[in-house]
């Protein structure tokens, strides 16, 4: 209904503007033969805004804060250009727009790709996209995630490259990608902070493979992935993720396991602990993420997210445990309208960052916690 109204409006405005001046009607701004194309185009405007109050306690973190926050604001355009060609574009307004030195796009351009349906079971994707990482935490758009666990909070989530997906069986789909592992050249990304024997590779490349499975009439689903990327010459990151989802009527349970071994620290967590002058090497991040959703009725939904993340240094030698973080995010959604997806939410975000005795003794760090309350709304608005 809204789409038909907007299309009619596009046609009528130029006609009304000139009808009093001319006896003959001019051509509309949008030619009639293009109207059919508009029916295959979707314009979205996504917003998440809220009011937050938070406290940090521990270490050097003793402060409070109260503010309004635009957590996510983005304009998206997607559609079908041909029976076998689709496109997707998303511009996020609360991100840096500086053009990146490697992929030549601003960080605010998160998605800019085309999908080509080569056959009923094979699709090709080209452009700037999200890697085919596993797990259900990563499946959610950032619009719906109030706070990620440590790995996905620091991962490079949108990069340029090529990928294919193959529907091998009705309930089993496989994906493979070849991507840039960075959006910036090494010197622009790290500046003077370097590790020993670091060299810029001819191609900082990442290889990502995943498998999506469905069992028991869709009640149990999986997203597993394995990736290896080269951030610098002959040294890279191996990232392994197991994602599981169980859904039955009003209850949805999701559990992810993440394992990221990095010969050169790409997440920056251990680098920030160890030194300001060199990059941490041979580090490991191991995480668990659990989310439960229960729909009480059409208007109210309850969510609970629990997460842990462990960081280890010098994995090949001493395997030093440096830090473990914990997170808890209970949330209530209220959806007052039937025909529009507008959600009001109330959430508590509790995070605790616990440094090991080894880290405290050697790197002058101490544990701390964050407590936060947010009230706001989430609105994925379909404009056309």
TrEMBL record:
According to the record, the signal peptide region is: 1-19
Put simply, this protein is called Phosphate-selective porin O and P
Keywords, ordered alphabetically: Signal
List, alphabetically, the InterPro entries matched: Porin_O/P
Fetch the Pfam families from UniProt. Answer: Porin_O_P
User: What is the top-level taxon of the source organism?
Assistant: Bacteria
Q: Which SUPFAM superfamilies match?
A: Porins (SSF56935)
């Amino acid at each position: 209904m809204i789409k038909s109204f907007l299309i009619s409006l596009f046609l009528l405005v130029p006609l009304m503007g000139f009808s009093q001046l001319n006896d003959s009607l001019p051509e509309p701004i949008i030619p009639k033969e293009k109207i059919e194309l508009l029916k295959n185009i979707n314009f979205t405007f996504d917003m998440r805004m809220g009011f937050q109050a938070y406290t940090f306690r521990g270490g050097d973190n003793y402060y409070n804060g109260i503010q309004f926050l635009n957590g996510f604001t983005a304009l998206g355009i997607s559609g079908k250009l041909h029976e076998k060609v689709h496109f997707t574009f998303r511009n996020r307004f609360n991100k840096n727009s500086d053009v990146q030195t490697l992929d030549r796009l601003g960080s605010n351009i998160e998605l800019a790709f085309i999908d080509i349906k080569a056959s009923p079971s094979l699709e090709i994707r080209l452009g700037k996209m999200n890697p085919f990482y596993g797990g259900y935490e990563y499946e959610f758009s950032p619009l719906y995630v109030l706070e990620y666990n440590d790995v996905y909070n620091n991962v490079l989530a949108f990069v340029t490259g090529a990928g294919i997906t193959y529907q091998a069986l009705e309930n089993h789909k496989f994906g493979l990608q070849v991507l840039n592992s960075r959006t910036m050249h090494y010197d622009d990304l790290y500046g003077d902070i370097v590790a020993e024997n670091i060299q810029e590779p001819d191609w900082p490349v990442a290889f990502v493979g995943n498998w999506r499975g469905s069992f028991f009439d869709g009640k149990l689903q999986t997203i597993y992935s394995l990736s290896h990327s080269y951030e610098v010459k002959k040294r890279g990151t191996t990232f392994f993720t197991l994602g599981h989802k169980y859904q039955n009527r009003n209850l949805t349970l999701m559990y992810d396991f993440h394992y990221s071994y990095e010969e050169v620290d790409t997440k920056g967590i251990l680098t920030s602990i160890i030194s300001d002058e060199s990059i941490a090497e041979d580090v490991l991040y191991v995480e668990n993420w659990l989310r439960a959703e229960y729909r009480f009725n059409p208007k109210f939904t309850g969510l609970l997210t629990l997460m842990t993340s462990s960081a280890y240094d010098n994995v090949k030698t001493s395997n030093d445990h440096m830090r473990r973080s914990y997170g808890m995010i209970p949330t209530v959604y209220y959806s007052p309208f039937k025909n529009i997806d507008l959600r009001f939410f109330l959430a508590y975000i509790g995070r605790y960052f616990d440094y090991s005795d080894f880290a405290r003794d050697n790197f002058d760090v101490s544990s701390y916690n964050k407590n936060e309350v947010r009230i706001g709304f989430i609105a994925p608005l379909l404009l056309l």
